[in-house]
From TrEMBL, chain A:
Belongs to the binding-protein-dependent transport system permease family. This is ABC transporter permease. The keyword S-adenosyl-L-methionine does not apply. InterPro entries: BPD_transp_1_N, MetI-like, MetI-like_sf. PANTHER family: ABC TRANSPORTER PERMEASE PROTEIN, DIPEPTIDE TRANSPORT SYSTEM PERMEASE PROTEIN DPPB-RELATED. Keywords: Cell membrane, Membrane, Transmembrane, Transmembrane helix, Transport. It holds the Pfam family BPD_transp_1_N.
TrEMBL record, chain B:
This is ABC transporter ATP-binding protein. NCBIfam families: oligo_HPY. Residues 11-257 form the ABC transporter domain. PROSITE patterns: ABC_TRANSPORTER_1, ABC_TRANSPORTER_2. The keyword Membrane applies. Keywords: ATP-binding, Cell membrane, Membrane, Nucleotide-binding, Transport. GO terms for molecular function: ATP binding. The lineage of its organism: Bacteria, Bacillati, Actinomycetota, Actinomycetes, Micromonosporales. It is a peripheral membrane protein. It is found in: Cell membrane.
Length: 321, 325
């Protein structure tokens, strides 16, 4: 299908350009902030010469365009620089944080999607009833709650039933697989639940309004006239059309998932990307922050591209447009 | 045969109210009767907002949840209002199929035409698998479209093609009655004429009964066997086209004829019916047409005219019938 291919190529091109712009902005943004590697290192009685030596070591004495070019060159080799704080490659630090963050935010998002779909679909179906109002009200209340406060309340309410910090029990060594698994899941539960509850509101609202709009369409009336039951009308005719705007939202929020949740990870001491960003800000670990920003922008751009591709599958009108 | 044949659709004293957001009620259909006999073509005519589409939706049980319906709606002898949604669903598409006025979006934009026809066949167990696909291609050929239409999406079809597909879809399960709710409003004149001719031909060939809802009185006098003129939710006059055309009894019917431009003759210019239909969220004490009626008299404002029957489906609801315009 040439039209579809053209559409896809255009989107890929846009994504590539966006990544390049983001990378450049990322570079110059961190050159604009005050301080560099040399000013962070605080050794009493450090001479100006030693300072200059550190600057030379990090290549900070060269002109900005040269720095920019070598930054780009290093990026193509996957080199994001060295963390000021632990002197390890930023890429390795980030990879470890991403691996930690993913299970928590993926489970959290699944929770959010399940509750969000249930609330939104039911609300649209029983529009104007007390159940609709209660569901929507609850969704908005949770969405409005500060995530860190919700996290603390959940810890308080569960009363020590589940561990409230870290990813695993550090004293659990040489345990069998299932014990390890149970321990991991117990640790995952509260942060994932907080993440789900704090973010399901946006899904509920979008799904409800998108569904309401679709249910008012002529083709839904046609489907009812054909003799389909209400549920079959929703499943066969309304849902796929209502999914179009929802897909965009889900893909966009998947992009930001990489960020983990700074506040939630901080409350639960979850060693993910969010906590890494929090730590990097406190330690003025610029390379680490720069790497994290790059990771976030790229994942948002990639997820956008994913949404466009999904759209192509879901909406035949784009294929011929 | 001593007893008269049972009508396919027999609705009596149908009233429809809509709950308005401010708590008031809109009385959209006010005691209307609809009878459709086998192979009969019934035309329901009236201005916009006179309740004709609402009446049609009530027959199918497709009104929104904010509507309440009273009266008696029988389809092929079954009392549907008493049976509720389940009873209505048993007759939808199999016995009563409908072509909507908003043909532009009557088809699902993300599902191919074939699937939309086949799903109706499968739901009502008319055909399945390859048999259903063959039936779908027979249907689109029946409405004068090439088979390739089956693989198209809604946005790839023109307005006329969409309406033909809607018609093919409506005919899928061999219904007894075809309801057509202003089937040509969204189409230009040439295409509208083609679609109407197609509906006319197919209802005859397939022995269907037709209920054609439109605001085009001359059109129904040409194509239908019986006509009901509706005003403000009430049937104000009904009869054969000959009755309605040659001896219109209700002043509204006469004005509807006078309001139509006739491109074929040098007759008088069309007349405008002054004023607008009454607001249906209010109780009308007398004849609903009284404020716009050129012959209204004192009694008309206070006394609701009851339908007077002249036998054989001929009736009118006017205190002073036959007053010439």
């Amino acid at each position: 299908m040439p039209a579809a291919l053209a559409f896809l190529l255009r989107r890929v091109a846009v994504a590539v350009v966006t990544v390049f712009v983001a990378v450049s902005a990322n570079f110059f943004l961190f050159r604009a902030v005050p301080g560099d590697a040399a000013s962070v290192v605080k050794v009493p009685g450090m001479t100006a010469e030693q300072r200059q030596q550190i600057r030379a070591e990090f290549g900070l004495d060269k002109p900005l365009p040269n720095q920019y070019l070598s930054y780009l060159r290093q990026l193509t080799h996957g080199n994001l620089g060295i963390s000021f704080e632990n002197r390890k490659p930023v890429a390795a630090n980030l990879a470890e944080a991403v691996v930690n963050t993913m299970p928590m935010v993926v489970v959290g998002t699944l929770i959010a999607l399940v509750i969000g779909f249930a609330t939104g679909l039911f609300g649209a179906w029983r529009r104007g009833t007390a159940v609709d109002a209660a569901g929507l009200g609850t969704a908005l209340a949770f969405y409005a709650m500060p995530a860190q406060w919700l996290a603390l309340m959940l810890i308080l309410l569960t009363n020590g039933l589940f561990p409230s910090g870290g990813m695993s029990d550090v004293f659990l060594v040489d345990a069998d697989f299932w014990t390890m698994m149970r321990d991991r899941i117990a640790h995952l539960l509260l942060p994932a639940l907080t993440f789900g509850l704090a973010s399901y509101g946006q899904y509920a609202v979008i799904i409800r309004s998108s569904m309401l709009e679709t249910l008012g369409e002529d083709y839904v009336l046609t489907a009812r006239a054909k003799g389909f039951s209400n549920w079959a009308v929703v499943r066969r005719h309304a849902l796929r059309n209502a999914m179009l705007p929802i897909t965009t939202l889900i893909a966009l929020s998947l992009g930001t998932l990489m960020a983990g949740a700074i506040l939630i990870e901080t409350v639960f001491s979850w060693p993910g990307v969010g906590l890494a960003i929090y730590g990097a800000v406190r330690a003025r670990d610029y390379p680490m922050l720069q790497g994290a920003f790059l990771l976030l922008t790229c994942s948002v751009i990639l997820c956008n591209l994913l949404a466009d591709t999904l759209y192509l599958r879901l909406d035949p009108r784009i294929r011929t447009a | 045969m001593t007893s008269a044949p049972q009508p396919l659709v027999d609705a009596r004293d149908v009233n429809v109210w809509f709950d308005l957001p401010d708590g008031r009620e809109l009385h959209a259909v006010r005691g209307a009767d609809v009878r459709v006999n086998s192979r009969e073509k019934l035309g329901i005519v009236g201005e916009s907002g006179c309740g004709k589409s609402t009446l049609l939706m009530a027959l199918m049980g497709l009104l929104p949840a904010t509507a309440s319906v009273s009266g008696r709606i029988e389809v092929m002898g079954a009392d549907l209002l008493a049976g509720g949604e389940r009873a209505f669903r048993a007759h939808r598409w199999k016995d009563l199929a409908i072509v909507f006025q908003g043909a532009m979006n009557a088809l699902n934009p993300v599902i191919r035409v074939q699937r939309q026809i086949v799903e109706a066949l499968e739901l009502h167990e008319v055909a399945s698998g390859m048999a259903a696909v063959h039936r779908a291609s027979d249907l689109v050929r029946l409405v004068g479209l090439p088979e390739g239409v089956l693989r198209k999406f809604n946005h790839e079809l023109s307005g006329g093609m969409r309406q033909r597909v809607s018609l093919a879809m409506a005919l899928a399960c061999d219904p007894r009655v075809l309801l057509a709710d202003e089937p040509t409003t969204a189409l230009d004149m040439m295409v509208a004429a083609q679609v109407l001719a197609l509906i006319d031909r197919l209802t005859r060939e397939l022995d269907l009964a037709l209920v054609l809802v439109t605001h085009d009185l001359p059109l129904v006098t040409r194509t239908c066997d019986r006509i009901q003129v509706m005003y403000a939710g009430t049937v104000v006059e009904s009869g054969t086209p000959a009755d309605i055309y040659h001896q219109p009894q209700h002043p509204y019917t006469r004005l509807l004829f006078a309001a139509t431009a006739d491109v074929h003759s040098d007759g008088p210019d069309p007349v405008t019916i002054l004023g607008a239909p009454p607001r249906l969220d209010q109780v009308v004490p007398g004849c609903a047409f009284e404020p716009r009626c050129p012959h209204s008299q004192a009694r008309c404002a206070t006394d609701v005219p009851q339908p007077q029957s002249a036998g054989k489906g001929r009736s009118w609801a006017c205190h002073y019938p036959g007053e010439s315009t």
